[in-house]
Design a protein that fits this description.
The complex is a heterodimer of chains A (441) and B (314). With 441 residues, chain A is of the alpha/beta class. Helices cover 43% and strands 12% of the residues of chain A. Chain A has 17 helices and 13 strands. Chain A is globular. Chain B has 314 residues and is mostly helical. Chain B starts with a helix and ends in a 6-residue tail after the last helix. Chain B is globular and about 75 Å long. Chain B has a single domain (44-61, 71-308), classed as MetI-like fold, CATH 1.10.3720.10. Classes of the chains: A alpha/beta (441), B mainly alpha (314). Chains A and B meet through helix 1, helix 3, helix 4 and helix 16 of A and helix 3 and helix 14 of B. Chain B: Keywords: Cell membrane, Membrane, Transmembrane, Transmembrane helix, Transport.
């Protein structure tokens, strides 16, 4: 009896010791420390994109000794993961997406290492104009790796079938062309607007507002869209009216931006996407395995209130979270990934085997010039002037409270689309949210 | 019946235990059980109790990453939540999820368990297939059903259209609040109902066949046998089933998030907790909302147990 008790006691103490040992953690560096090791390590890179060509990554590994574990996560989920990991102070990846819209928040929170500590950003600035959108208080939060901006795309064949001008200059002419396409039965629903309550709806509205000749917020974050005569209000009304009048498929109330581009625009189900993404013609619509409209979709200058409107930029950047295990190795990767020559390779300047199929437009102007010179930029003659004239979405940069504002934008515009509220109510709620956030209450 | 037979069976181990008190060893023996369960207790304390206490305390503080420092805020978080239209709307949505989900999963659980109660050829295979949806992650199910509900090329609208019952846009997630919630909850019921079936089936397996035989001899119809034998004796299992359904539906997240995004037509209260905490970075309000969800879950679960559970001795 005594022996069995001792054995049980020993077992209990042993298991308790094991648990305590398990709870005590390892000797790893504290969160935020990271290793300075830059060779013989594996880093995780999390972007909302397919991986670059394997040969390119292999060449990087051979050159540096750094192996890259590429993780492709959809944009909305990626932003949530970044926030969740940073607030919990846990490791998620060594390099992640830094979107233009999150720069204000990330800069204020200090979740990322300043990239100017790792890369010569001053030397880069002249060739990468969108670097300014990633700078907060003199520190660069992320390095832009593309020069994405919003642009109107049209399926020229469908426009021509309806006898409509495939390059309308104004919103009115554009709307009339869409109505003609519908009236002539070329397609039942000619326009793609992604009305699902997600980020893509917000950016669509920003671009449409820009086309109507206005902006969303002023430099102090005050809403500029409350009056029914304001471009923002008109843009929201135009979008909802397009759905109600049957220009947009009714099912689009639950379609996201990428779903609309892949399942509607790339399949010839619709004739146009007013706020599409630059690069989609080359990386999606002209790709045979994912598109049935190869060679038919073109970029056009944004139809505006009284002539071509502006294109708003939404570049993607890449940065190093403070919980990265190998920040120095991640910095080496970012330097390689965003270098001019690498971007030229990704863009197909130096042969198809080096091309990164889903890569949009390079962030380095010098790489864009190489592409244009070699004729590698699909629609380059249209895109380059638009790129040079593209404007940031917010004059004063994305505010630190942008995610909450964007949530108010897409949930309320979605509500207006479904009919659960009017456009007026949606605009008022969005404006109230902006006022409240801007005032800091 | 089984109880009676087990009590008459001699237990050989008993004869080896010495009679009389053993005061010398008692104190050591009393400590032993606590020592043995201490690893589990530490795990529970680390992973459940400490975070729970932390949540309760922090819900009374202003904890906002964009508005530091952390400071005492009394009931401020709760007041702001009560004024937040998105949160109030999500409470209504969640109530509908609970009513639809608990009702459907319990009815399906009882119905399927009764069908599976008697052995038949292929019963094991049916049970194995039945469990599959429960074993799948909610996000995977959400993605799977996204294809079925797809407004432009989904199965449901395609079938309705090919049957000339609609123009292809009759069933749209997000179009109508009640329809959206019903469709989303259908997906969750598809996931949680298998566990309900298994829990109730386990209880039904304990009901002695002699009871049904005796009832049959007394002229009892199958329906009477179901209402007077099966249902009363299955109450413990039904109560457990309903409690797990209450917990699952009150905390529904994956299905509405994947199928309907952040739209107010289907957003659950757990989704709002997530948005407030990880999008707005207002953790104080997130803690407060989590605390409210926990309290409501406890109260409803206790209510279900009080109403449905009955101690049954066979």
């Amino acid at each position: 009896m005594l022996r069995s008790t001792r054995t049980a006691l020993l077992a209990g103490v042993t298991s308790l010791a094991l648990v305590l040992a398990g709870c005590s953690g390892s000797n790893d560096k504290k969160a935020g420390g990271g290793s300075t090791q830059t060779s013989g390590v594996t880093i995780t890179v999390a972007l909302a994109s397919d991986a670059p060509p394997k040969a390119a990554l292999d060449a990087f590994t051979k050159e540096t000794g750094i192996t890259v574990n590429w993780v492709n996560i959809d944009w909305d989920s990626l932003q949530s993961k970044i926030s969740a990991a940073a607030t919990a102070k846990t490791y998620f990846a060594d390099a992640t997406n830094v979107d233009w819209s999150r720069v204000g928040q990330l800069g204020k929170l200090g979740w990322y290492y300043p990239m100017d500590s790792y890369v010569d950003t001053k030397a880069m600035a002249a060739d990468v104009p969108q670097l300014a959108s990633f700078t907060v208080d003199g520190h660069v939060v992320g390095i832009p790796y593309d020069a994405s901006f919003m642009v109107t795309t049209v399926n020229t064949e469908l426009f021509q079938k309806a006898g409509a001008n495939p390059a309308p200059q104004t919103i009115d002419a554009y709307t009339a062309a869409l109505k003609a396409i519908k009236a002539k039965g070329v397609v039942q629903y000619p326009l793609n607007i992604p009305f699902a309550a997600a980020e893509g709806l917000s950016t669509y509205w920003y671009e449409t507002t820009g086309a109507f000749g206005g902006s969303i917020l002023d430099k102090d974050g005050k809403p500029q869209f409350t009056s029914p005569d304001s471009p923002g209000y008109k843009a929201a009304q135009w979008m909802v009216d397009a759905l109600k009048s049957g220009l947009v498929p009714p099912g689009n109330i639950n379609v996201t931006d990428s779903q609309g581009q892949q399942n509607l625009m790339a399949k010839g189900q619709v004739a146009s996407t007013f706020s599409d993404y630059s690069g989609n013609v080359g990386t999606l619509y002209n790709v045979k395995k994912s598109s049935s409209v190869v060679g038919k979709v073109k970029y056009i200058r944004t139809p505006g209130a009284s002539g071509p409107g502006a294109n708003l930029s939404n570049p993607d950047g890449i940065g190093i979270p403070k919980q990265a295990k190998y920040p120095d190795a991640a910095a080496k990767f970012i330097e390689w990934f965003t270098a001019t020559q690498q971007q030229a390779d990704f863009a197909g300047v130096n042969g198809p085997e080096k091309t990164f199929p889903t890569y949009p437009i390079p962030s380095h102007l010098s790489a864009v010039k190489q592409m244009t010179a070699k004729g590698n930029l699909v629609g380059g003659e249209d895109l380059v002037p638009m790129l040079q004239g593209s404007k940031p979405v917010f004059e004063g940069g994305a505010p630190s409270w942008y995610p909450k504002f964007s949530n108010a934008v897409y949930t309320n515009l979605h509500g207006a689309a479904t009919g659960s509220m009017s456009v007026e109510q949606a605009i008022k709620t969005i404006a109230d949210t902006a006022d409240q956030l801007a005032s800091g209450s | 019946m089984t109880v009676t037979s087990s009590t008459t069976t001699p237990r050989p181990a008993e004869s080896k235990i010495p009679a009389g008190p053993a005061p010398v060893h008692r104190s050591r023996l009393d400590l032993l059980p606590y020592l043995l369960i201490s690893p589990v207790m530490i795990f529970i304390a680390c992973l459940a109790l400490v975070p729970a206490v932390f949540t309760v305390v922090q819900s009374f503080f202003k904890v906002d990453a964009l508005d530091p420092p952390t400071r005492f805020d009394g009931f401020g978080n709760f007041v702001r939540l009560a004024k937040d239209h998105a949160v109030v709307g999500s409470i209504g949505n969640t109530a509908l999820y609970v009513v639809i989900g608990v009702t459907l999963s319990t009815l399906i659980g009882i119905g399927a368990a009764v069908v599976l109660q008697k052995p038949f050829r292929g019963r094991s295979l049916v049970i194995a297939v039945l469990i599959l949806p429960w074993a799948m992650p909610g996000v995977v199910e959400g993605i799977l059903w996204t294809g079925i509900f797809d407004p432009n090329a989904g199965l449901i609208n395609s079938v309705l259209s090919s049957l000339h019952l609609s123009d292809g846009n009759a069933v749209l997630l997000g179009q109508n609040r009640l329809l959206t919630i019903a469709l989303i909850e259908l997906v969750q019921v598809w996931q949680i109902a298998p566990l309900s079936v298994l829990l109730i089936l386990a209880v039904l397996q304990l009901i002695p066949g002699e009871l049904y035989e005796a009832a049959q001899i007394d002229g009892c119809t199958p329906w009477s046998a179901f209402t007077r034998i099966t249902l009363p004796l299955a109450r413990p299992g039904i109560a457990v089933t309903m409690v797990q359904a209450v917990i699952a539906t009150l905390n529904v997240f994956d299905q509405p998030y994947v199928l309907n995004g952040a739209a107010n037509t289907g957003a659950s209260v757990t989704m709002q907790t997530y948005f407030i905490s990880f999008q707005d970075l207002d953790f104080g309000q997130g803690y407060a909302l989590s605390l409210l969800i926990t309290i409501v879950t406890l109260l409803i679960s206790l209510g279900v147990v009080r109403l449905v559970y009955r101690r049954v001795e066979l």
